[in-house]
């Protein structure tokens, strides 16, 4: 970052040739020379360097803020996912219980029909309820059906 020399004399001021043959120097109305392309380039470079310095100076602050923001959002999203999973599992469990409650009689009838047809085959191993309770209820239902059949 060198400093730009300032001089009062104008040694390198270009001149323009006019149509009438006279010449005039390229100066602004205030008397200052029009800045050359090199001066413009130096100004642009200085501005670019100062912007870069400011960017680097404030970079750590921006990164720290972003990390804090990301961490807070990550925690919030993880908690939301946990809450959703818990809620979803609870809904599934409640739906399953309700479904079994609504279809309890149909399930019992199908089980007893399988037992009566198959003679108590090993197909009953996939029951959701324990085998002892299911077989006791099946036996009770079978005896009830036999009693009803004997009455008629």
Automatic annotation (TrEMBL):
Segments for region (Disordered): 1-135
Compositionally biased region (Polar residues): 1-12, 21-35
Compositionally biased spans, kind Acidic residues: 122-132
Residue stretches of biased makeup (Basic and acidic residues): 39-84, 92-108
Domain of life: Eukaryota
Name recorded for this polypeptide: Aste57867_18817 protein
């Amino acid at each position: 970052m060198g400093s730009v020399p300032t001089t009062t004399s104008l040694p390198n001021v270009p001149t323009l040739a006019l149509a009438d043959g006279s010449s005039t120097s390229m100066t602004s109305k205030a008397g200052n020379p029009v800045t050359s392309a090199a001066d413009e380039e130096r100004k642009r470079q200085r501005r670019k360097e100062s912007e870069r310095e400011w960017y680097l100076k404030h970079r750590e602050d921006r990164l720290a803020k972003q990390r804090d923001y990301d961490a807070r959002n990550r925690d919030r999203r993880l908690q939301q996912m946990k809450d959703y999973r818990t809620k979803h599992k609870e809904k599934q469990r409640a739906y399953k219980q309700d479904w079994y409650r609504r279809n309890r009689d149909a399930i019992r009838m199908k089980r007893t029909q399988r037992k009566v047809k198959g003679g108590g085959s090993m197909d009953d191993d996939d029951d959701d309820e324990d085998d002892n309770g299911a077989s006791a209820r099946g036996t009770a239902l079978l005896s009830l059906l036999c009693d009803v059949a004997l009455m008629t």
